[in-house]
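testing teh design pipeline on a random one, pls ignore if ur not involved
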C-alpha cells in the first residue's frame, strides 16, 4: 500500500507519524528518507508517541541510536554520520530489525541493502517553510504474503 499526502506544518507532520505509529507492531521497520530539515525527527516524535513513549524523541545523529520504552521497545537510528554498512552491522542493526520492538531509521537510503522487504518506507520532501510531501510505501502485507 502506498499513500502520498501533503502537510503544511510541523504539527501535521507529527500527526502523520502518529497515525503510522498506531499501526506498528513488534518487528516492524520504518525507513525514513529526506533532506536535512525535512522533518524526519518531527515525524518520529508522533510515531513514538503512538507507541506509548512518554519522552520526546530527539535526533540520534551524534549517538547513532536512541532507545525508547513504550508499549514496545523503539530503536531510533540515524545513519547520517556512519561510514559503512559494516559499522551499522557492528551496531547490531540486524538484531534490532529482527527483534521484538520497532526500528525507525533516519537516512535509510544509505543502507538500502540491509533493509528487510517488509520495511515501511517513508519519504519526506520539502524544507524550511515549504509544505512537506510525505510518501508512505507500506510493504508489510506484501512481505507477509510471500
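output:
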Amino acid at each position: 500500500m502506498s499513500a502520498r499526502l501533503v502537510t503544511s506544518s510541523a504539527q501535521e507532520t507529527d500527526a502523520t507519524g502518529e497515525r503510522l505509529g498506531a499501526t506498528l507492531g513488534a518487528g516492524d521497520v520504518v525507513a525514513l528518507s529526506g533532506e536535512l530539515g525535512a522533518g524526519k525527527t518531527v515525524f518520529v516524535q508522533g510515531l513514538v508517541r503512538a507507541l506509548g513513549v512518554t519522552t520526546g524523541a530527539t535526533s540520534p545523529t551524534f549517538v547513532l541510536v536512541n532507545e525508547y520504552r513504550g508499549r514496545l521497545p523503539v530503536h531510533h537510528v540515524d545513519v547520517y554520520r556512519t561510514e559503512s554498512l559494516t559499522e551499522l552491522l557492528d551496531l547490531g542493526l540486524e538484531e534490532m530489525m529482527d527483534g521484538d520492538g520497532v526500528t525507525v531509521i533516519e537516512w535509510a537510503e544509505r543502507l538500502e541493502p540491509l533493509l528487510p522487504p517488509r520495511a515501511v518506507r517513508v519519504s519526506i520532501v520539502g524544507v524550511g517553510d515549504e509544505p512537506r510531501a510525505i510518501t508512505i510505501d507500506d510493504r508489510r502485507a506484501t512481505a507477509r504474503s510471500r
